[in-house]
């Protein structure tokens, strides 16, 4: 099991947590799990060095606060394991230009930046992600729906490499939970909650002031009807709120529909705002505790990098050999 998260914006948002990180915490109990903060991916768009460094530590602190346990999983920073960039080069050489051009995330992000300003790194970012996954011989990759196409590319490239050079990589599957595959923007519930595309009011950052978070939930866009029913086509806003409510509390959606029958959107939003506050308040505190203890954080990362490198180096060495590189003596 392998997955990663970018340290770009500082705080994780609710989509990151419900779509990915929450699953990571559960899966560390049952799988040999590798989780990383993908700082190499972060520099595909312009970054301030001091901010990147601070945000990388902040991402690690949030992962620990969310419940990752370094004794149950391998938690590391991507740039601490140079094999990622090394295997990415090999994979770049197997990827068609047209194939990379079809990646919708690249199309969206480069369109937002202006095609001339988008970096070559942003273009080949999905191929780096392929290397990330294949290095650990991952069977499954827990991600949100927006990553499905990249996992498909990973499967294609693993099979291409194996077909050309002999069986080397496992072909992974995306692990996407249907219920939380896509958490939507609170102001435009037809598009995903996203750090780069959502408006501040549509985006719930887990480290924001709990009061501000509650306010955003209370002003979430719903519809002109009053009935609380899960229906993503007719009622995307209400359905999104029900998904979040259900996932954070464990109450199933039919039970919530019954609970709020005849009560109107105000009651649902007020209660969900409270649920959110109860969730983010200890999360913020735990994150701060990890940030206040840099020695523990550094030692978690040193141990994680060592464990990750042991696996990654072995896979890379096999791949280099298969490609025909002369072994270094
Ligand atoms: N809205 C979402 N619903 C469900 N899952 C989501 N993920 C992201 N948004 C949603 C999942 O979070 C994991 C980490 O993604 P990332 O490293 O790409 O994080 P990000 O860049 O912070 O996420 P954004 O908001 O998607 O950024 P933009 O839009 O700027 O690229 C992944 O598993 C992802 O699927």
Automatic annotation (TrEMBL):
GO molecular function annotation: tryptophan-tRNA ligase activity
A Pfam family this chain is assigned to: tRNA-synt_1b
Binding site for ATP: 6-8, 15-16, 144-146, 183, 192-196
Reaction(s) catalysed by this chain's protein: tRNA(Trp) + L-tryptophan + ATP = L-tryptophyl-tRNA(Trp) + AMP + diphosphate + H(+)
Motif extent ('KMSKS' region): 192-196
Domain of life, per lineage: Bacteria
Binding site for L-tryptophan: 132
DNA repair is among the record's keywords: no
Enzyme class: ligase
Keywords: Aminoacyl-tRNA synthetase, ATP-binding, Cytoplasm, Ligase, Nucleotide-binding, Protein biosynthesis
SUPFAM superfamilies with a match to the protein in the record: Nucleotidylyl transferase
EC number(s) on file: 6.1.1.2
Gene3D superfamilies for the chain: HUPs, Tyrosyl-Transfer RNA Synthetase
Cell location: Cytoplasm
Membership in a protein family: Belongs to the class-I aminoacyl-tRNA synthetase family.
Assembly notes: Homodimer.
General function of this protein: Catalyzes the attachment of tryptophan to tRNA(Trp).
PANTHER family: TRYPTOPHAN--TRNA LIGASE, MITOCHONDRIAL
Protein name: Tryptophan--tRNA ligase
Gene name per UniProt: trpS
